[in-house]
Amino acid sequence: MADNKVYRASTTAPVNIAVVKYWGKRDPKLNLPTNSSISVTLSQADLRTLTTASCSASFDGDSLTLNGQASDISGARTQACFRELRARRAALEAADSSLPKLSTLPLKIVSENNFPTAAGLASSAAGFAALVRAIANLYELTDSPSELSLIARQGSGSACRSLFGGYVAWRMGDKADGTDSKADLISEASHWPNMRALILVVNAAKKDVPSTSGMQQTVATSGLFQQRISQVVPANMILMEEAIRKKDFPQFAEVTMRESNSFHACAADTYPPIFYMNDASRAAIRAVEAINAQAGKTIAAYTYDAGPNCVIYFLEEDEATVVGAFHRFLSGVSGWKASAAEAKSSVELPENIAGILKDGVGRVIQTGVGEGPEKTDEFLIAEDGQTVQR
Ligand code: DP6
């Protein structure tokens, strides 16, 4: 009788938000970037992907279900991840004939986010990191997170940074085959554990240009971008690593804001131009400037990815000042933690700014720096191979 045993493994993986931005590919096929980048991994208590990977001879071909919907796995990125992970498992099987030949079995993957997809938060980073980590667990690969980041990078560039918690660098590398373009840890979350993030989820009227095509248009048409990759980013990488190592928030904040501005300036310098920020995004920048001006020092930093949502980094000791300034007029939107109502802030935001934010912000997420992927006994696929209905 054929062995129809179902093998399975589960993991969670976090979202990360870059403070030195990845924007531009030097090799779209291998997903190699034009510059290095740095991110902060956010807590999985608030934002995480849970993925179960399983394999069995009883499955009918490879499949992937995301948030209850069958997902197309024929794309080159998902195929590259499957192929590389299977090759690593096959190498283990070749070295030890007692191992079951999992590399030859169909894969069934089921994945869920604990945050609404409608929030418009980039979930591809957590998604591909979880996919790669879950299959690596299933195959009992001994590869380090950095080695696995080489695979996750081919799913989505920013995903390579979600294989670690804390403060993470993606080193661009210079080899043509991409074997040195991988993530590594700058500092554990515990090194600077009081980093917090407030995410203002902004209502978007239309769909943004996807990051993959947006960055390729920038590479092809922006002159400013050449200066960014040759001078701006290399300098910011040094400053940001130093700021993290020294736990120097003002330096961390200034580089974070300059990086966001530089990336969005390059988007605007793309021909035709790409605009990710809207009126509410720009109002949030003014709000952060007002907070810093009234505090008399830099206690908050804004950053934006390929969309209008604002991520504001600050330290726990400044939570009342920063969170209170926004909660005062955004108390009606969902997502606040109970403590936000008690946050007393001396900061008064100008009325016109508060008004635009009130109209434009749909919900908030309060979170902070967090840990990398974690193995879990929570399964989205049952022992018999059936998808768990939730
Ligand atoms: C603006 O990782 O989504 O968030 O590699 O094409 O999948 P692909 O791009 P993706 O780009 C993210 C860009 C960014 C900045 C960043 O996360 O560094």
Automatic annotation (TrEMBL):
Molecular-function GO term, any one:
diphosphomevalonate decarboxylase activity
Answer yes or no on keyword Nucleotide-binding. Answer: yes
What does it catalyze?
A: (R)-5-diphosphomevalonate + ATP = isopentenyl diphosphate + ADP + phosphate + CO2
Source superkingdom:
Eukaryota
Q: Which SUPFAM superfamilies match?
A: GHMP Kinase, C-terminal domain, Ribosomal protein S5 domain 2-like
Q: Which Gene3D superfamilies match?
A: 3.30.230.10, GHMP kinase, C-terminal domain
Keywords from the named record: ATP-binding, Lipid biosynthesis, Lipid metabolism, Lyase, Nucleotide-binding, Steroid biosynthesis, Steroid metabolism, Sterol biosynthesis, Sterol metabolism
Q: In which pathway does it act?
A: Isoprenoid biosynthesis; isopentenyl diphosphate biosynthesis via mevalonate pathway; isopentenyl diphosphate from (R)-mevalonate: step 3/3
> Domain Mvd1 C-terminal spans what residues?
197-374
- State which Enzyme Commission number(s) the record gives: 4.1.1.33
Report the record's Gene Ontology biological process terms.
ergosterol biosynthetic process; isopentenyl diphosphate biosynthetic process, mevalonate pathway
State the InterPro entries in the record. GHMP_kinase_C_sf (IPR036554), Mev_decarb (IPR005935), Mev_diP_decarb (IPR029765), MVD-like_N (IPR053859), Mvd1_C (IPR041431), Ribosomal_Su5_D2-typ_SF (IPR020568), Ribsml_uS5_D2-typ_fold_subgr (IPR014721)
Hey, which family's this protein in? Belongs to the diphosphomevalonate decarboxylase family.
User: Mind telling me what this protein is named?
Assistant: Diphosphomevalonate decarboxylase
Which organism encodes this protein?
A: Hapsidospora chrysogenum (strain ATCC 11550 / CBS 779.69 / DSM 880 / IAM 14645 / JCM 23072 / IMI 49137) (Acremonium chrysogenum)
